[in-house]
Amino acid sequence: MKVLLTGSKGQLGSCFQDRLPAGWKIWATDSDVLDITDLSAVRAAVANFQPNIIVNAAAYTAVDKAETEHELAALINKVGPENLAVAAKEVGARLVHVSTDYVFDGTASTPYIETDVTNPLGVYGLTKLDGETAVAAVQPEAIIIRTAWVFSEYGNNFVKTMLRLAKERDTLSIVADQRGCPTYAGDIAQAIIDLLQKNVSGGVYHFCGDKEVTWNEFAQSIFSIAVCKGRLSSSPEVKGISTDEYPTPAKRPAYSVLNCDKINAVNIDRSHWVNALDVIICKI
Question: Which cofactor does it need (predicted)?
Fold first, then answer.
Protein backbone atom coordinates (compact mmCIF):
# COMPACT_ATOMS: atom_id res chain seq x y z
CA MET A 1 0.00 0.00 0.00
CA LYS A 2 1.30 3.44 -0.96
CA VAL A 3 -0.16 6.30 1.05
CA LEU A 4 0.12 10.03 0.43
CA LEU A 5 -0.52 11.79 3.73
CA THR A 6 -1.26 15.50 4.01
CA GLY A 7 -1.15 17.47 7.26
CA SER A 8 1.69 15.28 8.46
CA LYS A 9 2.76 17.63 11.26
CA GLY A 10 -0.67 17.91 12.85
CA GLN A 11 -2.19 15.77 15.57
CA LEU A 12 -3.82 13.22 13.27
CA GLY A 13 -0.99 13.21 10.75
CA SER A 14 1.59 12.55 13.47
CA CYS A 15 -0.48 9.76 15.03
CA PHE A 16 -1.13 8.20 11.62
CA GLN A 17 2.60 7.90 11.01
CA ASP A 18 3.05 6.28 14.43
CA ARG A 19 0.53 3.58 13.52
CA LEU A 20 1.50 2.92 9.92
CA PRO A 21 1.24 -0.84 9.28
CA ALA A 22 4.38 -2.74 8.34
CA GLY A 23 4.84 -2.87 4.60
CA TRP A 24 2.93 0.32 3.88
CA LYS A 25 4.93 2.99 2.09
CA ILE A 26 4.12 6.57 3.03
CA TRP A 27 4.93 10.00 1.70
CA ALA A 28 4.14 12.32 4.60
CA THR A 29 3.61 15.90 3.45
CA ASP A 30 2.72 19.15 5.12
CA SER A 31 1.97 22.57 3.65
CA ASP A 32 5.67 23.34 3.31
CA VAL A 33 6.05 20.32 1.02
CA LEU A 34 2.68 20.20 -0.75
CA ASP A 35 0.19 23.07 -1.02
CA ILE A 36 -3.11 21.25 -1.36
CA THR A 37 -4.83 24.48 -2.48
CA ASP A 38 -2.71 24.43 -5.67
CA LEU A 39 -4.36 21.98 -8.08
CA SER A 40 -1.42 21.77 -10.47
CA ALA A 41 0.98 21.03 -7.60
CA VAL A 42 -1.36 18.37 -6.21
CA ARG A 43 -1.78 16.74 -9.61
CA ALA A 44 1.96 16.65 -10.18
CA ALA A 45 2.72 15.23 -6.74
CA VAL A 46 0.07 12.51 -7.01
CA ALA A 47 1.04 11.60 -10.56
CA ASN A 48 4.67 11.29 -9.50
CA PHE A 49 4.09 9.22 -6.34
CA GLN A 50 1.18 7.13 -7.67
CA PRO A 51 -0.42 6.35 -4.30
CA ASN A 52 -3.16 3.79 -3.72
CA ILE A 53 -4.52 5.91 -0.89
CA ILE A 54 -4.55 9.63 -0.07
CA VAL A 55 -5.26 10.50 3.56
CA ASN A 56 -6.15 14.14 4.01
CA ALA A 57 -5.32 15.13 7.58
CA ALA A 58 -4.74 18.78 6.60
CA ALA A 59 -7.28 21.32 7.82
CA TYR A 60 -7.81 24.89 8.91
CA THR A 61 -8.98 24.34 12.50
CA ALA A 62 -8.82 27.80 14.09
CA VAL A 63 -12.56 27.97 14.77
CA ASP A 64 -12.66 31.60 15.94
CA LYS A 65 -10.11 33.01 13.49
CA ALA A 66 -12.07 31.44 10.65
CA GLU A 67 -14.78 34.04 11.22
CA THR A 68 -12.42 36.70 9.85
CA GLU A 69 -10.34 34.43 7.61
CA HIS A 70 -13.17 32.90 5.61
CA GLU A 71 -11.23 32.81 2.33
CA LEU A 72 -8.21 31.04 3.84
CA ALA A 73 -10.42 28.55 5.69
CA ALA A 74 -12.31 27.81 2.48
CA LEU A 75 -9.10 27.29 0.53
CA ILE A 76 -7.77 24.72 3.00
CA ASN A 77 -11.03 23.05 4.04
CA LYS A 78 -12.90 23.03 0.71
CA VAL A 79 -10.60 23.70 -2.25
CA GLY A 80 -7.75 21.55 -0.91
CA PRO A 81 -9.83 18.39 -0.39
CA GLU A 82 -11.49 18.88 -3.77
CA ASN A 83 -8.06 19.11 -5.43
CA LEU A 84 -6.97 15.90 -3.70
CA ALA A 85 -10.15 14.16 -4.84
CA VAL A 86 -9.54 15.24 -8.44
CA ALA A 87 -5.94 14.03 -8.39
CA ALA A 88 -6.89 10.79 -6.64
CA LYS A 89 -9.51 10.03 -9.29
CA GLU A 90 -6.97 10.61 -12.06
CA VAL A 91 -4.60 7.92 -10.76
CA GLY A 92 -7.24 5.54 -9.37
CA ALA A 93 -6.39 6.22 -5.73
CA ARG A 94 -8.89 6.30 -2.90
CA LEU A 95 -9.26 9.40 -0.73
CA VAL A 96 -9.87 9.48 3.02
CA HIS A 97 -11.00 12.91 4.19
CA VAL A 98 -11.51 13.98 7.80
CA SER A 99 -14.35 16.31 8.79
CA THR A 100 -15.97 17.55 11.98
CA ASP A 101 -18.96 17.45 14.32
CA TYR A 102 -19.26 21.21 13.78
CA VAL A 103 -21.19 20.58 10.56
CA PHE A 104 -24.21 20.27 12.91
CA ASP A 105 -25.96 23.11 14.74
CA GLY A 106 -26.28 21.37 18.10
CA THR A 107 -30.06 21.58 18.42
CA ALA A 108 -30.46 17.78 18.60
CA SER A 109 -31.00 15.90 21.84
CA THR A 110 -29.80 12.50 20.61
CA PRO A 111 -26.51 11.63 18.89
CA TYR A 112 -26.28 12.70 15.25
CA ILE A 113 -26.29 10.02 12.57
CA GLU A 114 -24.48 10.43 9.25
CA THR A 115 -27.63 11.32 7.31
CA ASP A 116 -28.96 13.96 9.70
CA VAL A 117 -29.46 17.45 8.30
CA THR A 118 -26.35 19.59 8.59
CA ASN A 119 -26.46 23.26 9.55
CA PRO A 120 -23.06 24.66 10.62
CA LEU A 121 -23.11 27.68 12.91
CA GLY A 122 -19.77 29.18 11.88
CA VAL A 123 -17.31 29.55 9.05
CA TYR A 124 -15.17 26.61 10.21
CA GLY A 125 -18.07 24.17 10.15
CA LEU A 126 -19.36 25.61 6.88
CA THR A 127 -16.03 25.22 5.08
CA LYS A 128 -15.61 21.69 6.40
CA LEU A 129 -19.09 20.80 5.15
CA ASP A 130 -18.24 22.35 1.77
CA GLY A 131 -15.15 20.13 1.72
CA GLU A 132 -17.26 17.02 2.35
CA THR A 133 -19.63 17.96 -0.46
CA ALA A 134 -16.81 18.68 -2.91
CA VAL A 135 -15.03 15.40 -2.16
CA ALA A 136 -18.18 13.31 -2.49
CA ALA A 137 -19.08 14.97 -5.79
CA VAL A 138 -15.70 14.14 -7.34
CA GLN A 139 -15.12 10.73 -5.76
CA PRO A 140 -18.26 9.01 -4.39
CA GLU A 141 -16.11 6.11 -3.15
CA ALA A 142 -14.12 8.43 -0.87
CA ILE A 143 -14.28 7.79 2.88
CA ILE A 144 -15.30 10.86 4.89
CA ILE A 145 -14.82 10.61 8.65
CA ARG A 146 -16.50 13.10 10.96
CA THR A 147 -14.86 13.31 14.35
CA ALA A 148 -14.85 15.62 17.36
CA TRP A 149 -12.90 17.31 20.15
CA VAL A 150 -9.56 15.92 19.01
CA PHE A 151 -6.63 15.65 21.43
CA SER A 152 -3.24 13.94 21.47
CA GLU A 153 0.34 14.21 22.65
CA TYR A 154 1.08 16.26 19.54
CA GLY A 155 0.33 19.85 18.54
CA ASN A 156 -1.94 22.25 20.37
CA ASN A 157 -5.16 21.02 21.93
CA PHE A 158 -7.51 21.35 24.90
CA VAL A 159 -5.61 18.86 27.04
CA LYS A 160 -2.32 20.73 26.72
CA THR A 161 -4.04 24.06 27.33
CA MET A 162 -5.71 22.78 30.50
CA LEU A 163 -2.45 21.34 31.87
CA ARG A 164 -0.68 24.65 31.24
CA LEU A 165 -3.43 26.72 32.85
CA ALA A 166 -3.59 24.37 35.84
CA LYS A 167 0.01 25.26 36.65
CA GLU A 168 -0.70 28.98 36.36
CA ARG A 169 -4.05 29.39 38.13
CA ASP A 170 -5.84 28.08 41.22
CA THR A 171 -9.30 28.49 39.72
CA LEU A 172 -10.53 27.90 36.18
CA SER A 173 -13.93 28.67 34.66
CA ILE A 174 -14.83 26.15 31.95
CA VAL A 175 -17.92 26.01 29.74
CA ALA A 176 -20.42 23.50 31.10
CA ASP A 177 -23.29 23.68 28.60
CA GLN A 178 -21.66 22.30 25.45
CA ARG A 179 -21.68 18.52 25.16
CA GLY A 180 -19.53 16.38 22.88
CA CYS A 181 -17.17 13.44 22.74
CA PRO A 182 -13.40 13.87 23.15
CA THR A 183 -11.51 11.75 20.62
CA TYR A 184 -7.88 10.64 20.68
CA ALA A 185 -6.13 11.34 17.37
CA GLY A 186 -4.33 8.01 17.63
CA ASP A 187 -7.67 6.22 17.66
CA ILE A 188 -8.82 8.20 14.61
CA ALA A 189 -5.64 7.17 12.81
CA GLN A 190 -6.24 3.52 13.68
CA ALA A 191 -9.86 3.76 12.56
CA ILE A 192 -8.71 5.09 9.17
CA ILE A 193 -6.26 2.22 8.79
CA ASP A 194 -8.92 -0.30 9.81
CA LEU A 195 -11.45 1.12 7.34
CA LEU A 196 -8.90 0.88 4.53
CA GLN A 197 -7.90 -2.66 5.43
CA LYS A 198 -11.55 -3.68 5.52
CA ASN A 199 -12.11 -1.94 2.17
CA VAL A 200 -15.41 -0.48 3.32
CA SER A 201 -17.80 1.24 0.96
CA GLY A 202 -17.46 4.97 0.44
CA GLY A 203 -19.46 7.60 2.29
CA VAL A 204 -19.60 9.38 5.62
CA TYR A 205 -18.68 7.63 8.87
CA HIS A 206 -18.89 9.08 12.38
CA PHE A 207 -16.06 8.27 14.78
CA CYS A 208 -15.61 9.83 18.21
CA GLY A 209 -15.10 9.12 21.90
CA ASP A 210 -17.17 6.58 23.80
CA LYS A 211 -18.32 8.91 26.57
CA GLU A 212 -20.04 12.26 26.12
CA VAL A 213 -19.07 15.11 28.45
CA THR A 214 -19.07 18.88 28.72
CA TRP A 215 -15.85 20.85 28.34
CA ASN A 216 -16.01 21.34 32.12
CA GLU A 217 -16.22 17.59 32.74
CA PHE A 218 -13.45 16.94 30.21
CA ALA A 219 -11.21 19.39 32.08
CA GLN A 220 -11.94 17.69 35.40
CA SER A 221 -10.98 14.32 33.91
CA ILE A 222 -7.72 15.79 32.65
CA PHE A 223 -6.84 17.22 36.06
CA SER A 224 -7.82 14.06 37.94
CA ILE A 225 -5.58 11.87 35.79
CA ALA A 226 -2.74 14.41 35.82
CA VAL A 227 -2.74 14.48 39.63
CA CYS A 228 -2.78 10.67 39.81
CA LYS A 229 0.12 10.50 37.37
CA GLY A 230 2.10 13.10 39.29
CA ARG A 231 1.96 15.61 36.44
CA LEU A 232 0.12 18.09 38.66
CA SER A 233 0.62 18.54 42.38
CA SER A 234 -3.05 19.43 42.80
CA SER A 235 -6.11 20.14 40.72
CA PRO A 236 -7.36 23.70 40.31
CA GLU A 237 -10.90 24.52 41.35
CA VAL A 238 -13.07 24.11 38.26
CA LYS A 239 -16.17 26.30 37.97
CA GLY A 240 -18.84 25.64 35.38
CA ILE A 241 -19.97 28.58 33.30
CA SER A 242 -22.41 29.03 30.44
CA THR A 243 -21.53 29.70 26.83
CA ASP A 244 -23.01 33.18 27.25
CA GLU A 245 -20.49 33.86 30.01
CA TYR A 246 -17.62 32.96 27.69
CA PRO A 247 -18.42 34.67 24.38
CA THR A 248 -16.32 33.72 21.35
CA PRO A 249 -16.28 35.04 17.77
CA ALA A 250 -17.62 31.72 16.46
CA LYS A 251 -20.79 30.14 17.77
CA ARG A 252 -20.38 26.49 18.75
CA PRO A 253 -22.99 23.74 18.84
CA ALA A 254 -24.41 23.07 22.29
CA TYR A 255 -24.70 19.36 21.51
CA SER A 256 -22.47 17.66 18.95
CA VAL A 257 -22.44 14.03 20.05
CA LEU A 258 -21.98 11.69 17.09
CA ASN A 259 -23.72 8.35 16.67
CA CYS A 260 -21.08 5.77 15.71
CA ASP A 261 -23.31 2.78 14.97
CA LYS A 262 -22.33 2.74 11.28
CA ILE A 263 -18.61 2.39 11.95
CA ASN A 264 -19.28 0.03 14.87
CA ALA A 265 -21.12 -2.23 12.40
CA VAL A 266 -17.81 -2.92 10.63
CA ASN A 267 -16.22 -3.85 13.97
CA ILE A 268 -14.43 -0.59 14.68
CA ASP A 269 -14.89 0.52 18.29
CA ARG A 270 -15.28 4.10 19.38
CA SER A 271 -12.31 5.92 20.88
CA HIS A 272 -11.78 4.96 24.52
CA TRP A 273 -10.71 8.49 25.30
CA VAL A 274 -10.27 8.17 29.07
CA ASN A 275 -7.77 5.34 28.57
CA ALA A 276 -5.97 7.36 25.90
CA LEU A 277 -5.88 10.40 28.17
CA ASP A 278 -4.28 8.29 30.88
CA VAL A 279 -1.50 7.30 28.47
CA ILE A 280 -0.82 10.58 26.69
CA ILE A 281 -0.68 12.74 29.82
CA CYS A 282 2.51 10.88 30.68
CA LYS A 283 3.92 11.76 27.25
CA ILE A 284 3.09 15.46 27.31
Answer: Mg(2+)
